[in-house]
Amino acid sequence: GGVLRQALQGDGGEVTRHGFGQRLGLILTDAADFRDPERARIVELPTMRELARLPGGDAAYGGLHCFSPDGRLMFYEVNQQMVLVDWRTGEMLLGPLKGRRHYSVFSPDGKKLAAGLDDGRVEIYDVAHLKTPPQIWPAGALKPAELLGYSPDGRWLALRSGRSHQVSIYGTDTGQPAMTFGDASDGVTHVGSWFGDSQGMMLGGQNGRVRSWIITSQTSRILPAHSAQVYGVAVHPLGQIALSSGYDSRTWIIDWPSGRALGMEPGNSFMTRFSRDGTRAVLHDVGQSRLSLYGPKVAETRRPGRRTEISGSALAKSW
User: Residue 186: phi, psi to the nearest 5?
Assistant: First the structure.
């Protein structure tokens, strides 16, 4: 039935984080008024309907926030301390925890919450037993531990440091580094996305290089590159297409099996994501503080100041 591309404009605050369940889309935004004690706003995609207001919320650093796979829980920062809340009720389930956690992530089944620490260690919380102290994985070579995410099968957890081209893969059964990969010519690894089959990752580097890695064989191939730092990469869960977004105001649409570029979307996208079921993709245009949502056509929602249109874009045609 065609493809809907919807430009979603926020309330004047910066849109900084979005999380998907199977069909549910959620984002965390900052209110425009920084004096507002309930600056953290939970907003639904694609309607941009505000669902909840919560205390604090330094959403300016998007890596500090994550939603559980079912969209029910959110781990975020309040007054420089981390808390886990059921945002529907406002109930605090964990925290406040002192100190920054780097790029925290939930496991695919939502049973574990992982958070990276400055000294390179990784905290693993059991979501069903939050009163139990977290399991602590020992520090590896990469510090701080900035988490790139669990593999779809839950067997691996990938992390980077923000200072190295290398990525470490931890086995979730052992809590120990199992392998390290990366290419120094790519520059510092900035972003990563797992393949749907958990056999490898797509990485984006500081110098604009995009590369896919097969972790078992330690082999790689170079994908269409950017002329500036890569800010977002995403592989479709079924592996047909991939996206890479850079600070050069381009998002490449890539035929994943061949590595060939199918087209390009303009715009300086800071975050690039597919929903877990693969039916939607979202690009975050930093310059316009705008989210563009792509996917099969749904009932159009027209709201003042927000544009909805059927797109003839390269991304739409490749869907």
Answer: -80, -10
pLDDT tens figures, 59-94 = 444 445 788 888 889 888 877 788 899 988 889 999
Cα torsion at 265, 269, 272, 278 (round to 10°)? -30
Q: What residues contact residue 216 under an 8 Å CB cut-off, 6+ apart? A: 199, 200
Distance CA 165, CA 177 (A): 16
pLDDT digits (tens, 9 = 90+) for 141-185: 778 888 888 999 999 999 887 677 788 889 999 998 888 887 787
DSSP state of 142: S
Q: Choose among 109, 110, 148, 142: nearest CA to 234.
A: 148
pTM above 0.85, yes or no: no
Pairing of strands 73-78, 81-86: antiparallel
According to DSSP, residue 53 is labeled E
Query: Residue 16, SS3?
Result: strand
HSE on the CB side for 182, CA within 13 Å? 28
